[in-house]
Amino acid sequence: MVTSHPAGYVSTPSFRIAVPEVITLRSYDKLPVGDVKFTRRNIYEHYSYHCCYCGKKFTTHELNLEHVLPRSRGGKTDWSNIVTACMPCNLKKADKLPEEAGMKLLFKPSKPKWRGSASLVFRAPFKIKASWQRFIDSVYWNSELED
What we know:
Elements: E1 3-5, E2 9-11, E3 16-18, H1 40-46, E4 63-67, E5 82-86, H2 87-93, H3 133-142
Antiparallel strand pairs: 1-2, 2-3, 4-5
């Protein structure tokens, strides 16, 4: 009989095996479908962590996803309407069109092109000691966004 040990082990009558907290896939035999998913991570990467209005580079904590045509005016949440914006620019634009807010869009909203395995992003997670945090972050950043 195999039982789970509270300290992260599986014990048998003759030995004990440490149970890994996380198991990850390190290789596979086929590339993913040739399409870039609409995720926060991919949007931030596509605009190289720059605000599409002021052009400055920011950390993920200082950027927002911004609807060029506001949702309140029928704007969709898709590649053709989402860009990254720093908080001051996002607040200044509010629910206006860029020209109504006196702002210029420096990067046109667009869907990035699939670049094969170069499109896969493997970044170290933020420095959080909780062993599961990196996988929670992965779900947050890589889950497809819905309207």
